[in-house]
Amino acid sequence: MSPLLEGKRVVVTGASRGLGRAIALACAREGAAGVGIGYRERAGEAEGVARAIEAQPGGRALALGFDVTDAAAAAAAVERFEAEVGPIDGWVNNAGAVATGLLVASDVEQLRAQLETNLLGPMVCARAVLPGMMRRRRGVLLNVSSVAAVRPARGQAAYAAAKGGIEALTRALAVEYAKKGVRVVCLRPGAIDTEMLGATRALAGDEVVARVPQRRIAAPDEVAGYAAFLLSDRAAYVTGAVATVDGGYAVG
Ligand code: NAD
């Protein structure tokens, strides 16, 4: 069987580390013809991911520094990638941030920042990448949600609301762009071993593991493989769907 993403070009936001890095590397392993490594602050790490991809035979990657909430910067990143690497077939809205705090103890600026990073950012990026996909009548937009959307922990009101929003956004965009040949899908991970989870575990300790029926945290690669499948033509009939990869967290 040919690699899942042979000949495809994929951009992943927040790909200097964590799940985004794992998705970018998985896309390259699955034969992608070009991978965009979106990052906001850690240029050196993003360049490192790009170099690791380029070191593989046929590997092509480009590090793209931009904040996902900045419309002009997102548009410029799309333009640059398409000029230097080629048309974008897949875009992964992976960048995200979690800030915990009870709603009444959070100030409005903290709430606004959570919604901007986790919900407005993906909408801003979708606005930048969808027109090209529609013109070419092909493309996949993959949004990254969280089990917090359906089973939030205490102190996650803004994060959970934003992640619930990205799931609704997935359904809305799937309906809007299906006729244009664009699929819009969502990946809903559970607990993954990244810096983000490290912060949650520092607060909640082993409670996190105790909530997972499989009693373990996933490696980023276990989730990244599923992302590559959703981006591929083997998932051609999947749109508007939320794929849960969580060791049973949402149902436990
Ligand atoms: P992480 O903190 O390791 O990585 C997040 C990345 O997003 C970082 O590279 C960061 O710089 C980037 N980012 C944040 N705000 C940005 C902005 N405004 N513009 C551009 N980049 C920005 O976290 P992770 O665990 O790898 O998270 C990846 C995704 O997976 C997030 O959407 C997160 O909500 C989701 N998720 C993670 C877990 C988990 O357990 N780790 C569980 C469910 C969902």
UniProtKB/TrEMBL annotation:
GO terms assigned for molecular function: oxidoreductase activity, acting on the CH-OH group of donors, NAD or NADP as acceptor
Protein family per UniProt: Belongs to the short-chain dehydrogenases/reductases (SDR) family.
InterPro entries named among the record's database cross-references: NAD(P)-bd_dom_sf, Sc_DH/Rdtase_CS, SDR_fam
Organism: Sorangium cellulosum
BP term (GO), one: fatty acid elongation
Lineage of producing organism: Bacteria, Pseudomonadati, Myxococcota, Polyangia, Polyangiales
PANTHER family in the cross-refs: 3-OXOACYL-[ACYL-CARRIER-PROTEIN] REDUCTASE, CHLOROPLASTIC, SHORT-CHAIN DEHYDROGENASES/REDUCTASES FAMILY MEMBER
Protein known as: 3-ketoacyl-ACP reductase
Name of the coding gene: fabG
Top-level taxon: Bacteria
Pfam families, A to Z: adh_short_C2
